[in-house]
Amino acid sequence: MQLPTCSGIRIRTLSDAHVIFHGVSLGLLPIVSRRLDIEERRFIHSGCVCVWEERSACGESSSAAGIERWTDGRRWGPSRVRDEFLYYQEKLPDFEADEELSCLIFGSRLIKQTYSVYVETPTGRRKWHLVAYFTGETLERLLTIDEIPELAAIRSLIPPGKYTTARMARQRTRLDTVAGPPLFGPDSKPGGPSTLSLSSFSHSDQTHAHARVPLYKIDQDNLPLPHPRADVRLPALKPPPWSPPRWLEDELATRQPDLNGAQSQRLRRNHAIDLAPLIYLRKRPYPPRDVADDDILQKFDCGIV
């Protein structure tokens, strides 16, 4: 199973993204060299960051396992722009719920953040892509680049101009953010502005009410270490395994609420009604038909009854 480039971190700025790219360039961080298989797609979670190299049209990728396009097996809404990043909100099935349940579901679904650059390598100019995942609920609890000494040490080693954005100049938009309701949430409306603020994804009231606890920490003792170049001296950085952290089970539980806690406010007033939300029912298989029912249906087909 492939490793992600990093786990348990968030990308705040282009400078953060360049640190990850340079860590890959130095051999300190792994690159995702092939398309994710079904098992690897299942383990995508908040805090995963992946760097991959695009396979050139003429097949001149620096790696025989270059990737033509990124696929993670999820459905995404239209892109939104902030700086040079593109953000995509995970699409969920249609459902009816009260405001409380809607906030819970929208806050726990994944957001994909992407950024692409051109980089000069010993084998020529290549196009690298960064894909990061997070949720609105977990964004403020993910570690930053500066909180990981091994990554923070890379920032000063990046040569100026080594990584240039791959987005066309005509596609660039203003860097300011917009006021109003979040673009990725229950109040979002199609056709709105194309820029956004990362504060839209976080719950600031919860952040101030509770101390920030990182979701994931790099275990420096039990992980393999990539070998950096001989002329670079940095603290040892070891990538975490491609597997969901301990807190992922709790996050999945919130994304699929239990039957009693996921009722609308109107239904919860009547304790005699115990109905599952439609979003839950749509994911469950139909129950098998009873044998006696099959016998009755066969009699109708034969014209006996």
TrEMBL record:
Biased amino acid composition, Low complexity: 188-201
GO molecular function: DNA binding
Source organism, top-level taxon: Eukaryota
Region of interest (Disordered), residue spans: 177-201
InterPro entries per record: Gti1/Pac2
PANTHER family referenced in this protein's UniProt entry, alphabetically: CAMP INDEPENDENT REGULATORY PROTEIN (AFU_ORTHOLOGUE AFUA_3G09640), TRANSCRIPTIONAL REGULATOR MIT1
Official protein name in the record: Gti1/Pac2 family-domain-containing protein
Record organism: Polyporus arcularius HHB13444
